[in-house]
Amino acid sequence: MTEPMRLSVNIDHVATLRNARGGSFPDPVEAARIAMAAGADGITMHLREDRRHVRDRDLERVATEVACRLNFEMAATEEMVGIAERLRPPACCIVPEKRQELTTEGGLDVLAAGPFLAEAVRRLAAKGTEVSIFIEADLRQIEAAARLGAQAIELHTGAYADATPSERPAHLKRLRAGAEAAAAHGLRCHAGHGLSYETVGPIAAMPQVVEVSIGHFLISQSVFEGLPAVVRRFKALIAEARP
Length: 243
Ligand code: PXP
Prior knowledge:
The protein is an alpha/beta fold. The protein has one domain (6-241): TIM Barrel, CATH 3.20.20. It is built from 11 helices and 8 strands. Helix 3 (56-65) links the parallel strand 2 and strand 3 (69-74). Helix 6 runs parallel beside helix 8 (168-184), helix 9 packs parallel to helix 11 and helix 10 packs across helix 11. The protein is globular, with a radius of gyration of 17 Å. Bound molecules: pyridoxine-5'-phosphate. Pyridoxine-5'-phosphate binds at residues 10, 12, 46, 73, 93, 95, 103-104, 134, 154, 192-195, 213-217. The site of pyridoxine-5'-phosphate (PXP) has 19 residues, from strand 8 and helix 10.
């Protein structure tokens, strides 16, 4: 039987709203609690170098106060690896990070990465954290992630999610091949970026993909429907599409 798929709710945008007024509301930690109570399987937070959305204290509070599978999204830098070693989250996702970008624009180029990426994977895994690397569905990148000793990859679904309906089958074919290659290399496969009610189903239909990480659409749609309702609807769409 196909393993169930986890929904990891990215709460970065709750912090973006809070920061817009400089106060403490809305609290991303409260959002994490509400998402978990509504049936989410985990919480994702990306602590950026410039702390533009979640801050160190938000991450620490979720890590210590909220019963969840925390997925700490981070750049492979000494500072972030140090924070992860201290907090020991169940999961980390290593992403590329550019200061000017609005969001993580592309996957990490594992082939071009320097030696610190391997060190980061080693150090995080030594603390018992499941390490995934956010990459494009490119066979060479997947092989390189496996060689590095990552336990998982997260496939970048942004191009698929942004494509027109007629362009999507070609993107799905590439993502499916990536998910199959990940499994063949013994890597657990996650997926995320840009997913919505409309685009999550075909990803959930891929049996190798065991987790999706969703933020922007999910938090934005919560303005209209409320966070628990949106989490429940995503869970239902995933269950419906799962083989
Ligand atoms: N996965 C990774 C690695 C990301 O960087 C992001 C964006 O923070 C997401 C998933 C979620 O993307 P979105 O906010 O578009 O749902």
